[in-house]
Amino acid sequence: MNIVVCVKQVPDTWAEKKLNPADKTQDRDSVDNVMNEIDEYAVEEALRIKEKLGTGEVTVLTMGPDKAVETIRKALSMGADKAVHISDPALHGTCVVQTSAVLAAALKGLEWDLVIAGSEATDSRVSVMAPLLSEQLGVPQLSLARKVTVDGGNVTVERVTEDGYDVVSAATPAIVSVVEKTNEPRYPSFKGIMAAKKKPLETKTVADLGIDAGTVGLAGATSEVVDFANRPPRSKGEIVKDEGDGGVKIATYLAGQKLI
Amino acid sequence: MAEVLVLVEHTDGTPKKVSFELLTFAKRLGTPSAVVLGGPGAGAAAEKLKEYGAEKVYVGESADLVDYLVAPKAEVLAELVGKTSPAAVLVASTSESKEVAARVAVKTGSGLITDAVDVSAEGIATQNIYGGAIVVQSKVSKGTPIITVRPNSVAAEAAAGAGTVENLTVSVSDAAKGARVVEKVAEKKSGRPELTEASIVVSGGRGLGGAEHFAVVEALADELHAAVGASRAATDAGWYPHTFQVGQTGKTVSPQLYIACGISGAIQHRAGMQTSKTIVAINKDPEAPIFELADFGVVGDLFQVVPQLTEEVKKRHG
Ligand SMILES: Cc1cc2nc3c(=O)[nH]c(=O)nc-3n(C[C@H](O)[C@H](O)[C@H](O)COP(=O)(O)OP(=O)(O)OC[C@H]3O[C@@H](n4cnc5c(N)ncnc54)[C@H](O)[C@@H]3O)c2cc1C
Ligand SMILES: Nc1ncnc2c1ncn2[C@@H]1O[C@H](COP(=O)(O)O)[C@@H](O)[C@H]1O
Question: ipTM of this model?
C-alpha cells in the first residue's frame, strides 16, 4: 500500500505568532518553524501501516516556503521514503481552499492508495484538509480518526465526533486525517537522520503542476483578511495562596463579578 | 433581500442552541432560511426554527444523509446554494458541519471562513486567531461566502418567521457514498449543559488524580449549572470521556466563566479556552502557566478549595 502523508510547517507551538502588517499573512520569519505536531502522528500512522503490511512506500508531501524542507527532512528521518515539496513564490498567501487544490494537483501526479493528513494545523486551525482533498479528488473522506485499520483494500477508522465516535469504512483510495490519539510518534534515530539526507526529494513549482499562478497566492485567494488587531494581553489577575479560605475567596470574587 | 442559508445543527430533529444563533446572524445579512438535513424525522426541527426568524425551512430527510459520512449533506447543500444563490451560507463550527462547509466551498467555487465569532451585515467575519492574541476581520472574495460560526458567539434573538417548509428531494450520488458509517457510538448524556454552549465550564486535569475524583468537579459544576470539561491528560488517562476534552484537539469553549481545577495550562489546553470571559484557576503549583491567564487564582490543594467553593456557592444560592 502506497501512502502519501501531508505535512505542514508551522510556527513552533509556543512561539508568539504574528501577522505581517503589510500583506496580512502569517509572519514565518520571526519565529522558529516546526512540523505541525499532529502531522507527526500522521507520519507515524503511515509508517506503522507500511511496517505492518511489509510493503509499499511512504511519500511526504508539503506545500510551503523553501525552509519547509526542514519539516520534510524530519519526516524522512522518522522513516518516510521520499518527498515532494511544492515551493513557489507565487504560493505566498494561498487560502485554504486553494491550498487543497494545489495539494490535489500534486496528488494526481503520485501513486497512492491512502493519503494521511493531520486533523488540524496549529497555526490556521482550519482543520478541514481531509474533506477538501476528498472533494477535490473525488475519493472517500475518513477524517478525524483516532484509530485506523487497514484490511486489504478497505480502511476503517474510529472517527471522533462531538458526542462519541463513529466507525466509518471506505474502499481505497481514500483520504484519512488523524487526531493525536492515534499513536505515539517516534523520534528520528541517528541512523534515520543520516539516511534522510540521501532520500529522494522532488521540488515542484506551480507551473510543474499545471496550475495557473493567478489562481493561487494572495491574488487567487478565495477569502481575504481585511483588517486585524493585536489584542492586548489579558491583564494580570489576582492570585492568592489558600489559607484555608480559598474556596470562599473564589466565591466572593465570583459574586463581585456577578457570576454567581 | 437575498436568502441566507443556515445549516441547522440538531439531534434527531431537536435543534441545538447554536442554530438559533446562526439565524440571528443570518437576519443581519438577508432573509434567513434554515436547512435541516438528517434521517427521517429531522424535519421536526422546523417548528422551533420559525420562532427564531426562519422564513423558509428546507427539509432534506434521507437515511443516506446519516449512513454516509459528510459528502451527501454537502451535495444537498451545494445543490441548494446553486438553486437559491444565497447571500451567504452559515454553518456551526462543529467538527462535522465544518467539513460539510469545506466540501460545499469546493463544489460551489467559493471561499471559506472558519470559526467566526461575529458576522457583520456586510458579511465581514471576525475571527480570534493564535489563541485569541489577534482579532482578524475577513471576507470571502469568490463565490458565495461560506462561514462557520462558533457556538456562543451571539445571544439568540427570538423573532417570528413564516417557517414555510419546503421538502427537498434527496438523491445522493454514488460518488458521495464512499465513506459508510458502520456504527455510531455516543457517550451517555450527562444532563449537564453542552460543553460548547454552556455559559460556565468547570474543568478538571491531571491534578484530580483519578476518575473517581471527577465527582469533585461535577459537584461544583452542578451547583453552577455548568458543563464539565477535562484536559487531555485526564481524557487520555481514561478518567473522563474524550468528548469533554477542551483544547486544540478537543473542543473550543468561550464561556462567561471557566474554572480550571488541577490543570497546568499547556498551550494546547489554552487554545481551547483562552477566549473565556473570566478564568479562575485552582492549582497547587504557583508557577503553573494557567495563572498567567487567570483573572482569579488560588494556589492550593483543589481537594480543599473546590469542595469549599461548592459549599459556599450553595450557601449563596440559598
Ligand atoms: C498534538 C497535541 C494535541 C493536544 N491537545 C490537547 C487538548 O486538546 N487539550 C489539552 O488539555 N491538552 C492537549 N494536549 C496536551 C497538553 O500538551 C498537556 O499535556 C495537557 O493539557 C496537560 O493536562 P493537565 O494540565 O491536566 O496535566 P499536567 O500538565 O500534568 O498538570 C496537572 C496540574 O495539576 C496540578 N495539581 C496536581 N495535584 C493538585 C492538587 N491536589 N490540587 C491542585 N492542583 C494540583 C499540578 O500542579 C499541575 O499544574 C495536546 C498535546 C499534543 C502534543
Ligand atoms: N501547506 C500544506 N502542505 C501540506 N499539508 C498541509 C498543508 N496545509 C495543511 N496541510 C495538511 O492539512 C492538515 C490540516 O491543516 P489545516 O486545515 O490548516 O488545519 C495538516 O495537519 C496537514 O496534514
Answer: 0.94
